[in-house]
Amino acid sequence: MQGDRELGTLLWNLASNSITLETAGGEELLFAESSVDRNAMYVEQMSNFIEVAACRLPPRISLDDGIAVITLIDALRQSASTGLPIAIKPE
Fold this sequence. Notes:
Layout: E1 2-5, E2 8-13, E3 18-23, E4 26-32, H1 38-53, H2 63-82
Antiparallel strand pairs: 1-2, 2-3, 3-4
């Protein structure tokens, strides 16, 4: 995933689980975590989902939090396609 901005470009590398900032002055590694076990993360998420669906555990996040994340993702997509900042109204 790549996002172009006036001050540089953020590059997210899913394979290496890293985020790099590219600017006219070079590259800066902002985040890197190579020890993440994606399969274990998926299994944990699915196990938790099943427990919540069966009413054995409460959800980890609220419906309002989920809506806020979807709103943020939508604004990021709009900004990426238009090149303009998108205002998000606080709830």
